[in-house]
C-alpha cells in the first residue's frame, strides 16, 4: 500500500463509522433497530445517490479490496457470534411451539419463494447455468429471520422476560439452523469449488461436534478457575473459527458456514460463562467497527436510482411473498399449537425481521452469481422494509401495558412459593 492509499483508507473508515453511528442513532430515535440506520448508511454511500460519486471519491477502486477483506473478517466473527447464541436444547426439538412456528415460517416462504424464483428465471434475472441452485437459493433467502435483530427488538421493548418473547427467541434459533442448512444445500448444488470437496462437509461437521467440541469443553473447564479464562481462550478460539471458515470456503460451501458451525459447537453445559465472556469481547469490535464496513461493501452493489416500472412490479411481488409467506407461516405454526391469536400475530411480526442476516445471504448470492445487481438491490430493499415493519406491528399487537402484565405474571409463576 502506498502512503496515499493508507490515508484514503483511514479517512474512509472514519466516514463509515461516523455515518453508521449517526444513522443508527437516528433509527433508534424513531423506534427502529440501529442496524436499519447502518444498512441505510451503506446504501447511501453506494451508487444510489449522486450517481455513485460518494463511493468513487471516498473509496477509490484500489482500496476496495482492503475494505472487502475487513468486511469478510467482520462477517466471520458475526457468524461465530450468531452460532454461539443458539440454544442446543431448543434446536434439538424439546419445545413444540418454537419448532412449529419455525417450521411454518420456513416451509411456506420457501415454497412461495421457489415459485416466484421460477417466474424470475424467465425474466432478465436468474442464474441461467444453474436454475436449481437459483430456485433453492431464492427460497432460502425468503425464509430467513434475523436472530440478532429480533433479540434487539425484544430487549428494547422489554419483551425478553415474557412468554411470547421467549418463544420468539427459541423459534428464531431453530429458524437459523434450518435457513442456513437450506442455504448450504443451495450453495452445494451450485457446485462451488468442485463436487468432490463438498462431499467432505458431513465428515467435517462430525469432526467439529465429536472431536473439536469436547476439546473446547476441556480447554474451557481447565480455565474456569482463573479470572482471565475468556482472555486466555480468545486467541485459540479465534484461530479455530478462522480455520473452520477456511475449511468450508475450500470445500466450496462459503466461509460463513464454517464460522457459524464453530460458534454452534462452543460448549454449553456449565461453561456458559466462558462462552458469554468470549462473545462479549468479540462483539464490540465486530458490531461497531467491522460490520459497518460490510454494510458499505454490500451497498456498493445496491443501485435504486434507475429502477424501471418492471423492477417496481417485481419488488411488489417480492414483498408480497416475503411478508405473506413468513408471517402467514409463523402464524399458522403458532395457531396449530394452540397459541392465542394475539400472541401468534406477535410471533408472526417478529419472525418477519430479516435485517443483517438477510444481507449476509444476499451477499453470498451475489458472489456466487445467483443474483444480478438489480435483483440484489430489490432484495436488499425488501430486507430493510420487512425489518422496519416489525417494531410498529409489535407495538400495535402487544402494547407496553400488556408486556408489563405478562412479565409480572411470568415472574410470579416462577417465584418460589
Question: What do you see in this structure?
Answer:
The protein is mainly α and about 425 residues long. The protein has helices spanning about 5-30, 35-45, 55-60, 65-85, 90, 95-120, 130-145, 145-155, 165-190, 195-200, 200-225, 230-250, 255-265, 270-300, 310-335, 340-350, 355-365, 375-395, 400-415. It is globular, with a radius of gyration of 21 Å. It starts with a helix and ends with a helix. The model has no long low-confidence stretch (mean pLDDT about 85).
Number of strands: 0
Element string (H = helix, E = strand): HHHHHHHHHHHHHHHHHHH
Provide the structure class: mainly alpha
Task: State the shape.
Answer: globular
Task: Characterize the largest beta sheet: strand count, sense, and whether it forms a barrel.
Answer: none
Terminal Cα span: 67 Å
Tell me, rounded to a whole number, the average pLDDT: 84
β content, as a range? Answer: under 5%
Q: Note poorly predicted spans.
A: none
Q: Total helix count?
A: 19
Cα Rg = 21 Å
Q: Helix fraction?
A: over 70%
